[in-house]
Amino acid sequence: MSKETKQFQTESKQLLHLMIHSIYTNKEIFLRELISNASDAIDKYHLLSLTDDSLEKTNEYEIHLEVDKKKRKITISDNGIGMTHDELIGNIGTIAKSGTLEFLKNMKGKEMKESDLIGQFGVGFYSAFMVSKKVEIITKSAFSDTAYKWTSVGEDEFTIEETNREERGTQITLTIRKNEDEENYDEFLETYKIRSLVKKYSDYVKYPITMEREKSIPKLDADGNEIEGEYDTMIENETLNEMVPIWKKNKSEITDEELHEFYKTAYYDYNDPMFHIWTDVEGLLTYKSIIFVPSKAPQNLYSEKYEKGLQLYAKGVFVMDKCKELVPDYLRFIKGLVVSPDLNLNISREMLQHNRQLMKIQKNLEKKIVNELEKTLKNDREKYETFWKEFGVNIKYGIYDNFGTNKELLQDLVIFETVNEDKLITLKEYVEKMPKEQKEIYYGSAHTKAALKATPQMDLIKSKGYDVLVLSDEIDEFMISILGEYDKKPFKSINKGNLDIADESEKELVKDLETKNVDLLTKIKEVLKDEVEEVKLSTRLKESPVCLVSGDDLSFEMEKVISQLPGDQEVKAKKILEINPQHELFQAIETIYRDHPEEIEDYASILYNQALLIEGLEIKDPVAFSNKMVKILIKAAQVGETNGTDSKND
Ligand code: ADP
């Protein structure tokens, strides 16, 4: 086969371009990425060799590094599965992960954040181009007799040709760039640097990562005695990595930094974890666990494809990668591992679900995590808020899920934006600040605090100075309804039912007005009979003319959320129109009703539609609404004109 020249896929070109011109400062991770690919390739070979008799069974695996300072070359070789001609083209020249493509499209024209790319997708092989001006791959698949050489300088194209290589596996040679862009990559050609990078990023890779090292040994005479002052140089193949898994060590031997590096390598995260919890339990059930809370939620956390779970080792042997029985649904974002000598290795998938020991470990871990979160909330508010921003919605879901069985455990972890406070506060803090006469915890739903503050329902509350929890997540009201009360104080929506906070005198006054205007109210109700269940004069409004509130059960917000759910649940919140009797508009309507009762229909309908608009709800017939408004505006103008004429004539 002669040499072929091929173009990179468009997206690959973009990715390469980003890599080559990357502002990414952490260029040293290229080595970790290539070693991790090599380790994966050995994994693949090993697994296949167990079942495929055509493959030699062996335990002699190795990832070998070579540095040639003069030629500015670093070589990474493995005896893994290797690649065929088509795999070389398919795996290296194209981007398989659909997420990466999406991401690149979205990134166009935006500033690249270094964590984004490598953090989310581990672009792996391409990172070699951050430090190399040329990359060469020589590879021979375990299933092929021919070896191939792939070469690229990372611009638009690569070449492939046949080459000679005896053993299966892959050898990647990087030619390190020199002083380009004022950056100096010379240090990557120092063996001490390579050694330290392996230690830092790849210490727990399970295959030996080796590199040759020159060693001076004393020369021996014919009798085998050392000759003083004379040395031979010997070349030794030194293993650089520890290979012992982190959990086999003692907690006290390990620094936070080491743990963080382990986390990043094992769970493919660019960022350090927000915190970790290391547990050693000895007793009836003995286990060790290391749990990490990521500092950023993975992009696919809420997609169906996301798999929660912890790695499970029993009797020191790896059992599975994602044991979901160890993680309650709402903590799906945690990463880590559990090692227990007490677990039976032969448990089947189905039996895992009912495994008492696993359930017990799950419960213990859950408590530990909640404990740690409580501590953070108490001692490091800023950190907790960062956590909340990423994962708060999960905690809320945890309260709501399972019919609220976890509410006691989790309710003190929730922090709320409120109308009066500048910072997020807990329910405990809210209750502590409640004035004596306030009996209920008020909340209101709106997309933002400003929007809630502007709603008519806030009128009276505002004048009383009561604080109101701002609920802006879809899950919020569902969570509140499961909570029911906190510290024996019931929750009370400012957008629902009766808000019984007006002074007695005020209530009396409104009652009187209601009696006085009973005809008018009955008439309005009749006009709106298909729309609202009740029309009443309000005690909660101060400046606003009308508002719409829901009945005590289902709120408008919940109605919206439920109607968006798949399935055909048809739920409707009860609508109550409240009219402000102190408002000029109501007084105007009283006059209209007295002088032109036939016009009351238009007014009633306009009032109602206004209330819908304020509530952010849809108007059924916007054209009819607009026509009625126009009619009234024209009439108002005509009345103005007549008045004007009258006054001139006076
Ligand atoms: P990822 O490793 O995340 O899949 P990479 O871009 O690093 O992405 O690698 C792309 C693919 O190329 C790998 O999935 C693998 O199939 C192949 N590959 C990379 N390095 C090696 C290697 N050393 N041996 C065999 N195959 C490899």
Question: Which helices and strands, and how do they pair?
Answer:
Elements: E1 4-7, H1 10-20, H2 29-51, E2 63-68, E3 73-78, H3 85-92, H4 98-107, H5 114-121, E4 132-140, E5 147-152, E6 157-163, E7 169-176, H6 191-202, E8 209-220, E9 226-239, H7 256-266, E10 273-281, E11 287-294, E12 310-314, E13 317-323, E14 335-340, H8 349-352, H9 356-379, H10 381-400, H11 407-410, E15 415-418, E16 425-426, H12 427-433, E17 441-445, H13 449-453, H14 458-464, E18 468-471, H15 476-483, E19 485-486, E20 489-493, H16 504-516, H17 518-527, E21 534-537, E22 546-550, H18 556-564, E23 575-579, H19 584-595, H20 600-614, H21 622-649
Parallel strand pairs: 2-8, 12-14, 17-18, 17-20, 21-23
Antiparallel strand pairs: 1-6, 2-3, 3-7, 4-5, 4-7, 5-6, 8-9, 10-11, 11-14, 12-13, 15-16, 15-18, 19-20, 22-23
The structure holds adenosine-5'-diphosphate.
How would you characterize the largest beta sheet?
A: 9 strands, mixed
CATH level-3 fold name of the largest domain:
Heat Shock Protein 90
Approximate shape: elongated
Q: What share of the residues lie within helices?
A: 25-40%
- Terminal Cα separation, in Å? 108 Å
> At the first level of CATH, what is the class of the largest domain?
Alpha Beta
Q: Mean pLDDT across all residues, rounded?
A: 87
Number of domains: 4
How many runs of DSSP E, i.e. beta strands? 23
Cα gyration radius (Å): 35 Å
Quickly give the CATH architecture of the largest domain.
2-Layer Sandwich
Q: Could you name the ranges where pLDDT drops below 50 across 5 or more consecutive residues? A: 646-650
CATH superfamily of the largest domain: Histidine kinase-like ATPase, C-terminal domain
The total count of helices amounts to 21
Strand order of the largest sheet: 1-6-5-4-7-3-2-8-9
Q: What percent of residues are in strands? A: 15-25%
Q: Which compounds are bound in this model?
A: adenosine-5'-diphosphate
Helix/strand/pairing class, anyone? alpha+beta
